[in-house]
Amino acid sequence: MSFYVFANNVNTQLAAPAASTDVTLQLASASNLPTLPSGQIMPLTLTDTATGTIVEIVYVTAISGSTLTVIRGREGTGATAWPTGSYAFSTPTKATNVNYRQTVSNIAGLRLITPISGNIVETLGGSSLGDGNGLDYYGASGASIGTYVDNGSTIIVPTGGNGSAAWLMGTPPSSEYMGYTQGSTGSVSRTVASKLQESVSVLDFGADPTGVADSTAAFSAAGSSDGTGVVEVEVPIGTYKLNANPTPTGIVTWVVRSGATFTGVGSLNGIGKTIRFSGPQAPLFIENNSVNTTGQALGLYLHIGNNPTATPVAGDSVAQTITINNLNGRTHLWGMDVVVAPDASGSDGMCRVLELEIANTVGGSNPDPFSGNTPYRKNGIEVVGMDGSNFNLTSSLTTWANDTTGNKWWLEGISLSRIKNYGIHFYKNPGGVIDSILPFQVAAIYDNSDSATVLKVDGTHTNIIDLSNLTTLTSFVKMGQSSNQTLPFSNEAAFDITIKLDAGTGAGIQNASLTFADRGTTQWGITKTTGNSLAIANSTSGVTTALFNYNSLSIGGANALGAVTGHFSIPTCAGTPTGVPAYTAAGTVAVQFDTTNNFLYVYNNGWKKSTVYA
Question: Which long-range contacts (CB under 8 A, 24 or more apart) does 192-198 make?
């Protein structure tokens, strides 16, 4: 309680005006001002001179001559601006009436005072002043009528009282008779008991902090102290034995202080919520979250209003900020470690480690997501590598299974569904800033896992790979192994396989070509020409070697007499051919040359010879 100092006949006026924020007052007179010991206060009342209805109570904490140091606006009054001449006087107030110690001459004088809980009165005598029978009495009030009967010594009922209040001899038995005032503007007087009862501790219900006795019943009682209502129970430093799980009736939050430990088979798991300070897990550890009436397990729920921007600045709302600095040489840094352990039977159904939702978004079709100047930036997860990372960032997102057998691996690393434009989009210049080095210097997608299939496509699609906006391409497929390589196309089912080169769907007829190069230089090409012919051409000389058109085959062109290239070659044999050709296309014949007899043979229901003259 506060210690008050009173003085008679302190009645003066302000010698100077005082603003509502001033903490010093200048009195016109220092007459009768008391000496104010350190830590004690003197109540002072200020009123206006015109009506006497404007009142402010201040607490004087220091006196120097006629200058007072004060605390403004006490006991429910507001700090007011006062003009010079305003009245200032010392008189008992409601708070001081609850807390101060009165004296009376004898018991008869005590009967003239109404008992108030928290008040203490000293009698200076029993029958008369100074007769040696003076004792202390404390006020008791609020009981039923007839509870107290005046016996002239230990119980004194006030004159005209009905027995519901009395003065009781001796020292107040508990804090319920001691007054308490918080002291700030708007505070009210109450008892110390009511102040202490604001918090609940397991020690209030007999818990043993030495760990010897079982404290289960004490924990249950503490959690039931408000019936079925909400209660916060403090678990102070100590060791508590729980031989069973507590069974509170209330909605409990256990506040476990640093240094509080538990033994026994019982625990607080699943019983309300637990907030652990500086425990073995973390400086602040929240566990054992109960399930609400809708069946949703509640852990930490943050609801942030307004519209936070991409990078927190002054005025932004941030739900949670985690900063970890490696100032003590730790081997590993963990920004957040979330472990979700489903039931081994799978009966708990859907399980999410992290779910992010952006509600009620309004934006454009596809603006630059890295531009801070667009209102459309709404990213589910954004990972930014900042300066000061020693330029050794390894991976912005890593998904792996802590298991080597494959039994507990993820079925899918990343699953995307209902993405309107692009499932994964790689940007070159985020925010319009030109990079000092090229991004994705090795590859935009890199598979080094020895997987069975790098890219697997199911379903129905218009295009597997869309290169319609490609500007520059050096190699579509690049191979660089040290041995000969084959790029196979295979159909695992028993059906034909076709590789189609389509020159486009426009009105004009375009070329479609397949070229063959050697060390970067194109040598040969097979082209479907604009005339719908198939040409085989030497790309170096530009000479068309063969041309297929309208069921005709044209080979080469006019040749010089001394030409060493541009010749047409056919199969040969040494003598008359005898075999039956295994395959000839409809409307065609097989041809072969006999180098021994210089005959040209044509197969038409048998080999027919034609003499070639020298």
Answer: 192/1
Q: Burial level of 423, CB count in 10 A (0-12/13-18/19+)? A: exposed
Tell me if 276 is assigned to some domain.
yes
In the chain, how many domains are there?
4
- pLDDT of the residue at 424: 87
The reported pTM is 0.48
Domain span at residue 250? 199-287
Residues 235/259, Cβ–Cβ less than 8 Å? no
**β-pairing, 230-235 with 251-256?**
parallel
Q: How far apart are CA 537 and CA 542, in angstroms?
A: 7
Domain end residue (candidates: 242, 257, 287): 287
Distance CA 134, CA 154 (A): 12
Taking a C-beta distance cutoff of 8 angstroms, is the pair 594, 573 a contact? yes
Alpha-carbon span 488 to 614, nearest angstrom: 47
Whether residues 102 and 175 share a domain: the answer is yes
Structure tokens at 261: 């430990």
d(CA 522, CA 541) in angstroms, rounded, equals 11
pLDDT at 554 over 80: no
Is 234 part of any domain? yes
How far is the C-alpha of 238 from the C-alpha of 510, rounded, in Å? 87
CB within 8 Å of 66: residues ≥ 6 apart: 15, 26, 27, 28, 29, 30, 33
Find the angle CA(287)-CA(289)-CA(293) to the nearest 5 degrees: 175
Which of 366, 368, 365, 374 is CA-nearest to residue 430? 368
- Residue 480 is which amino acid? G
Question: Rounded to whole angstroms, how far apart are CA atoms 374 and 384?
Answer: 18
Q: What is the DSSP string of 487-556?
A: -----SSSS---------SSSS---EEEEEEETTEEEEEEEE-TTS-EEEEETTTTEEEEEEETTEEEE-
Q: pLDDT (tens digit, 9 = 90+) per residue, 341-398? A: 766 666 666 677 777 776 655 555 555 555 544 555 567 777 776 654 555 667 778 8
Kindly write down the DSSP assignment for every residue of 16-84, as one continuous string.
S-B-TT--EEEBS--TTPPP--TT-BEEEEEE-SSSS--EEEEEEEEEETTEEEEEEEETTPPP--B-T
Residue that has been written with the tokens 């397949």 in this structure: 514
Domain boundary among 91, 123, 140: 91
Does residue 55 carry a pLDDT above 70? yes
Place of tokens 């080999």: 607
In this predicted model, what pLDDT tens digit does every residue of 427-474 receive, in sequence order?
776 555 666 777 777 888 888 888 888 889 999 998 888 888 888 888
β-bridge partners, 385: none
How many residues are listed for the chain in this entry? 614
- Phi, psi torsion values for 19, nearest 5 degrees: -75, 165
Residue position matching structure tokens 């005025």: 315
For residues 75 and 128, state if they share a domain: no
Whether 322 is covered by a domain: the verdict is no
Residue 221 lies in a domain: yes
Strand 55-64 relative to strand 67-74: parallel, antiparallel, unpaired? antiparallel
